[in-house]
TrEMBL record:
TM region(s), chain numbering: 521-542, 592-611, 631-648, 669-686, 692-714, 726-749
Annotated membrane topology: Multi-pass membrane protein
Chief place where the protein resides: membrane
Coiled coil regions, renumbered to chain: none
Recorded GO CC terms: membrane
Name assigned to this protein: YIP1 family protein
Top-level taxonomic group: Bacteria
Record has Membrane as a keyword: yes
Leader sequence residues: 1-24
Domain Yip1: 571-740
Gene3D superfamilies with a match to the protein in the record: TolB, C-terminal domain (2.120.10.30)
Keyword Transmembrane attributed: yes
Species name: Candidatus Caccosoma faecigallinarum
Entry keyword set: Membrane, Signal, Transmembrane, Transmembrane helix
Length: 770
């Protein structure tokens, strides 16, 4: 009993010390992850990128604040669209800003290519009937004609000639004028008076009765809430309707063939389909009730509803990008992507998930595939053509909006042909321009060259980026890709190792290995045959040559020494586990020292396995997982197992002592000690296509050790199989309870420490010692 008390005391000290180190490492990691931006006095546009481990770090300035336009007449801007035209052989960028002011809403047109853009501001009134709160803007050229599209979800109009039936308070069926809600206005950009009003999908019945198109769904289930729109080159309209849980609305271009003009000649839109829909995650309870329960029980469960899309964009290749506000997904306890790039059938090409609770407001994709996204607080995120994160910059201090580059409510952004960003602040009624730095321009050149298969130009641009930031992950990764597609696999692997691109590093290494094997296969075969021959010859010599026979006998004598014999017990466990565990129990074989050496070897090898594998199989390092956590976890699991198994066996009449359990558990780690070093070694010659070999070795190490531990329990405690099963279950339960109790005690000590510290500070303060 005294030994057990000492053991608990030692364990308490070890837990406190180890937990202090672990908590310290967590604190260090959390402070790194929550790194605050520099103050505005040193930089108004703070740029961050990711390092190879996925943490946000400082980067060279990607954009610099340009001009601020706060006196151009904006009073409630909603959206911006930048259109590019060829004028006298030169590219000219025009910005169209939608200002929402009810019936007095207007567009501001600005020549961004002019020397003084503010002098070119032109106010274009939107004399559209029933215009209420326009929020969406798009301009699209179709068959040589540029059309302006305005979305207004709150626009309403009742018209007597269109009727709908309803049931009054007396249960009588009556009819009344139909009230249309939510319009999309379409007009030639050079003749806005010829505008068309597109309604939600409707079907005209007899006697001018109208009802929703059946394929679109009823008003109770499918809301028509056109907040943002995008139009493809054929004229099909993609509607981001946040209140529509059924998905993104896709309308046909049949309105182009209609000669109806004005509010009184509405064009009923032709519904094609819901282009895409956000997925939902159902609870386990929902699946159980749906499978085994009744419809009544299922109706009582809260079923999650997909979030509607908040914005949409179509690039020059007719590729659709959708945006879902992160804040909406948080309220529904869902995990929706902030942005999704879609195939033509609505399925996903890639998704971008935000790690923060932010409300993204706008998305723009350049003709080169560079994606820009803005959030309400003023941060702008930039993604590459394949959705890879490049950097983000801007302000995340909404309480300091008066500083250039900071925003109160960044509602929309536009990108011109020179990659300048034009950001619209809705609350401050201004437009702020940002100019790309040389660093940012080099990144764009490198990406564009690579997409155009100009690998030499891409390499040169990436090398220029490295002059600004030599540890840039995407620059090293870009160089690796350029070399890879130029068939220089060794250089590609070198850069992929810096960027930690495991997949492409593995593919480059496969090419290097394949080339090496082709060049050296005869030598490899000769060495293998020679090694086999040497082994056979040595085997024969050890049986026939007197000197070697004596050497073999001397080795056997050394192996018979108690210390060496104790070290080799683990190999006998593998061959004869039942007999060996009985011998360990009766002290004929094994010792505490031998078992301790196995524990230490297992610890060293496990840590080596966690941190020492080749890049394709190495997922942890000191930045992502502190080694003290690994060491602490290894020691804690084994120590708690030994202790709890002893306590359970003492309750369940097991014959094994604490010493017996300690010894057989240590010797049972031999599969781990053998398999994991082999896995580490093989990781340097295998690729991800041979991942199954690495998985097999790990499973052998894990389940092999567990198997021998269970056999050790059975033999040491002289249990039946049934008794062994319950012993294992109770041991696991005790281990969980032990961890909970230890954590509770640690938290209690932490609270007491804080209380004592606060009392000491109060005494010092009252005594005037400060």
């Amino acid at each position: 009993m005294k030994k057990i008390k000492k053991l608990f005391a030692l364990l308490g000290v070890a837990l406190i010390l180890a937990a202090s180190g672990v908590l310290g490492s967590f604190t260090a990691n959390s402070s790194f992850a929550e790194m605050k931006p520099v103050q505005a006095s040193t930089a108004t546009v703070y740029t961050q990128t990711q390092n190879a481990d996925g943490f946000l770090i400082n980067a060279p300035d990607a954009y610099e604040p340009g001009s601020t336009y706060d006196t151009i007449g904006l009073n409630n801007p909603q959206d911006i669209f930048i259109d590019t035209e060829e004028v006298n052989g030169q590219t000219v960028d025009y910005a169209y800003i939608l200002n929402s002011a009810g019936a007095d809403s207007f567009l501001l047109k600005i020549n961004l290519s002019a020397e003084n853009p503010q002098a070119s501001v032109e106010n274009i009134p939107l004399n559209f009937s029933a215009l209420n709160t326009p929020t969406g803007l798009w301009i699209q050229e179709i068959e040589g004609i540029k059309y302006l599209y305005i979305a207004d979800a709150k626009a309403t109009h009742s018209e007597e000639r269109y009727r709908e039936s309803y049931i009054d308070e007396n249960g009588q069926e009556r009819d009344r004028a139909y009230t249309f809600t939510g319009f999309i206005y379409v007009a030639p950009l050079d003749n806005l008076s010829q505008y068309k009003v597109i309604t939600e999908p409707m079907v005209l019945q007899a006697n001018n009765f109208v009802e929703r198109a059946p394929s679109f769904g009823s008003d109770d289930l499918t809301k028509f809430d056109p907040q943002k729109i995008a139009v493809d080159q054929e004229g099909k309209i993609y509607v981001a309707s946040p209140a529509t849980s059924s998905g993104m609305i896709l309308l046909s271009n049949s309105y182009l063939d209609s000669d109806k003009v004005g509010l009184d000649q509405k064009v009923f839109s032709e519904f094609i389909s819901f282009f895409a829909v956000n997925n939902v995650r159902y609870s386990l309870l929902y699946y159980l009730v749906r499978t085994f329960g009744t419809d009544e029980q299922l109706s009582q469960i809260d079923i999650p509803i997909p979030a509607g899309f908040t914005n949409v964009y179509i690039d020059s290749q007719n590729i659709v990008y959708s945006m879902t506000t992160k804040a909406e997904s948080i309220k529904d306890d869902m995990s929706y992507p902030s942005m999704t790039k879609h195939k033509t059938d609505g399925s996903t090409i890639y998704k971008f998930f935000s790690t923060n609770i932010v409300e993204y407001t706008d998305i723009v994709v350049t003709s080169d595939g560079i994606t820009f996204m803005s959030d309400q607080n003023g941060m702008i995120v930039v993604l590459g053509p394949q959705g890879e994160f490049i950097y983000m910059f801007g302000s995340n201090e909404p309480n300091q909006p008066e500083i250039v580059g900071f925003f109160s409510n960044l509602i929309a952004i536009g990108i011109d042909s020179s990659y300048r960003i034009w950001a619209v602040d809705q609350e401050r009624n201004l437009i702020q321009s940002f100019n790309p730095t040389n660093y940012s321009q080099a990144i764009f050149r490198a990406m564009i060259s690579f997409e155009n298969h100009e690998y030499e130009e891409s390499r040169q641009a990436w090398e220029e980026v490295l002059q600004y930031d030599e540890l840039s992950v995407f620059a090293n990764d870009g160089l690796g890709k350029a070399y890879y597609y130029d068939l220089d696999f060794e250089e590609a692997a070198r850069y992929f190792s810096i960027s930690k691109n495991r997949t492409l590093y593995s593919e480059a290494f496969w090419e290097i290995r394949n080339t090496w094997l082709q060049d050296n296969l005869p030598i490899v075969i000769v060495i293998a045959v020679a090694a086999i021959a040497i082994i056979v010859i040595l085997y024969y010599l050890f049986k026939t040559v007197p000197a070697m026979v004596r050497f073999k006998k001397n080795v056997k004598k050394v192996k018979e020494k108690r210390f060496i014999k104790d070290l080799l017990v683990g190999f006998r466990v593998i061959r004869h586990p039942v007999d060996t565990f009985y011998e360990i129990k009766t002290n004929r074989r094994g010792s505490v020292l031998g078992a301790t050496i196995y524990y230490l070897l297992g610890l060293v090898i496990f840590v080596w396995y966690m941190y020492g594998k080749a890049l394709p199989f190495q997922y942890f390092n000191e930045n992502t997982l502190n080694s003290s956590i690994v060491i602490f976890g290894y020691i804690l699991v084994l120590f708690i197992f030994v202790l709890c198994n002893y306590l359970v066996s003492a309750i369940k009449n097991g014959e094994g002592t604490f010493k017996n359990i300690y010894k057989f558990t240590g010797y049972s780690l031999l599969p781990l000690i053998i398999c994991l070093p082999i896995a580490v070694g093989l990781s340097y010659i295998l690729t991800l296509t041979e991942q199954v070999i690495m998985d097999l070795l790990f499973q052998l190490a894990l389940w092999g050790s567990i198997f021998y531990i269970i056999v050790g329990i059975l033999e040491t405690h002289n249990y039946t199989f049934k008794q062994t099963f319950w012993n294992v279950i109770l041991t696991l339960i005790f281990m969980i309870l032990f961890v909970i109790i230890c954590l509770t005690v640690l938290l209690m000590f932490d609270q007491v420490s804080n209380l004592v510290d606060s009392i000491i500070k109060e005494v010092k303060l009252r005594a005037g010692w400060y």
